[in-house]
Design a protein that fits this description.
864 residues; Rossmann fold; 5 domains; 6-stranded parallel sheet; 33 helices; 14% strand
Length: 864
Amino acid sequence: MRSGIGLNGLPVATIELKNQMTGQNVDNAKKQYKSDRSPKDLLFQFKKRALVHFAVDTDEAWMTTRLEESQTFYLPFNKGYNNGKGNPPKPGGYRTDYLWKYVWAKDSWLDIISKFLHIEKKTVEIDGKKTVKEKMIFPRFHQMEVVRKLSKDAKKHGAGKNYLIQHSAGSGKSNSIAWLAYRLSSLHNQFDARVFDSVIVVTDRKILDTQLQDTIYQFEHKAGVVKKIEKDSTQLAESIYKGSNIVITTLQKFPFVMDKIAEMEKIGGKSVSRTYACIVDEAHSSQGGESSKKMKEVLSGKNLEEAMLEETDDQDADDIEDEIRKTMLLRGKQKNLSFFAFTATPKAKTLEVFGERNSAGQPEPFHLYSMRQAIEEGFILDVLKGYTTYKTFFKLTKAIDDDPKIDKKKAKTAIARFVSLHPHNLAQKTEIMVEHFRQIVSKKINGQAKAMVVTGSRLHAVRYKLEFDRYIKEKGYHHIKTLVAFSGVVNDKGVEFKETEINQFGEKELPKRFNTPEYQLLLVADKYQTGFDQPLLHTMYVDKKLSGVKAVQTLSRLNRICTGKEDTFVLDFMNEADDIKAAFQPYYEMTELEQTTDPNLLYDLKNRIEQAQIIWQSEVDNFAKVFFNPKFNFANQAKLNAFLDPAVERFKQLPEATIPDGPLSQDDFKHTVISFTRLYSFLSQIIPFHDIELEKLFPYARFLLKKLPKKNIEDSLKLDDEVAMEYYRIDKTNETPIVMEKMAAYKLQPATEAGMRRKKDDDKSFLSEIIQIINDKFGTDFTETDRLFFEQIVEACVSDEILKVQARVNSLDNFRFPFEESYNDKIIERMDQNQDIFNRLMEGGDFASVVLNTIMKEVYRRLN
């Protein structure tokens, strides 16, 4: 059902309403806008009539300000539930009734149009020509709510109260601050008196945050309302004395602001009662700590260990939170000054000073938009899903030697050598990072991905930069270039190094230069680890001890989204996974670090999927022919659906819920497919898989999950999933020719002892022995009856003509490759003969490994 909202006879919003009880939901509403509502119609033209378009069902609401057919981009407009996405249950009503009761109510709607809605203009360069891009900004629900709640509370209590707003990255903080500054600057109390004479916005950048500054300017067009303070304190004092509506300044001048506000209590001997709202923008610095402490002393001839120790001691130095808190405590609480502090990661002391007291007397944020909600709503990526320590990375890459379906040649010799690496042997770590970036990361985000190397000190950064450039030049990798970021001057054995001299351009240019295709790797030392917004940053190599807030700030540099960016990756040489998880826990609900140490788990999951007989190989093959065809366009998905729909119908025949010891259920199958897609996405960032069947199954499984009947969180669509899959398809299409050629890596090894047979071991009662080994090692109670199962497997393998040839021309180690696949096939063929043993073998682990190795040795012995 289509509806709308009008103002003075003009349509200002359209609404597509769907009712799940009739079999349709919000996805149908979005699809209807994309396919049945032409953006050429006057009602739907950008800026001409309707300003926003809502897709709504009884549970969720989404909105867009620009219809562009299949390219239409929707944002969730939900309240959030349990600090996650969605909406809370509403006893006796719909979950989305807040829309017509709160958002679309007459006064609310007029407020949104007059004080929130605006056109954002950005100048971009396309093909060397500058052009202005326009975007209609409509507030997300949490932005509208926080601005209204803060304004309402400030109007009630007046000046003198402090507020803490904990909003995650991805919350749209710049817009929230701009809306709040604009609202507070014109806020009047019940007596029609201004609540605040001036609003002062404090940002932690020495060079004012241009995004924030431009956003505030665009909200208020009257000359003189917004005053930017970039020069000296005299300019700031003048703005405060004159009572400029909105003043934007930096942390360096914050103590001066406090002093001047105190002085304003008396001017010329007369009492002057002026009030101020101070909005603090993100309590962390991106510029190496210069904004909250003196420049570090120059490192003179120190070794790497000393440099790291010195800068590790300093890594928890005061940031903007501490600086402002200390300044406030020194001056005491001022009744004419209210603080509005925005941060994603408040410290305990910050909560004490700025937090609201709950019913139990504990401080908490005035308003919360959690990291979990931002991730679930698709505004940022979960950096912990791609986090791995080097210990785990080593085990995964080492496992290549034991896995026939992974190209062994891709395992660099540096990986094996790392076990004995000295902590500061930069050359070998450099090889690992550069090769990982070249082989894996450089193909991400349609070949645009970038990486950051977080070093332990400024001296580390300098030496890493020299080593990276040396290695890249030696290998002839002309497509990889590096930049370095550190503060001040580094003296290394009498040679002075400066960031600007190494990079050969000014410090202010670095973010812009790194944003170009020319540079791929940025090496940093306590700089750009926080407050650095680069969506193409996909991977981070961490060679520095991190803890607490610093860990969260640093890894969160990866979480920005962009077209084609599906995941992130962190390779950590220095920290433990449990420590990183503990650091994120206070700010990130439901934290789970997904890691594994065995790539063969992927094949276990693939086997389970195949055993279910829901997905047929013929349909996967046909799907792949269409999906990986370079000429395929997502605008025409009919062909893909033809190969997905039969699997959906087979899936519907399964029982919905899991029954103990019962048949495979829909939940079981769906969980297995989800686990497979997650694990493949994770492992493919570490190990260069060259199994064509995996490559084909992954996109098929991803699309199948979208089509299976939806009933839980796991099944919801990602914001830009079609576009993301398109970029995955392009990446994999480009890799396909190479992948096909790499299959040759699994050819049998040539004979080393042609015509000669190896001496047989003494005959033993093998089958009875294996039963005894298993019972002793695993506490099982297998009997001689179970011996028949193993006997059948052995005899079937011995009778296999292909295995006979392979056993005679290969060593035992190389025989493992062809044997394992044949062995698994024979196990599956006999699954009904001994379900207990079959289940144990399919669970993997030590039991399955011992059985496989023992049978393999016996088969190899009998064939030679």
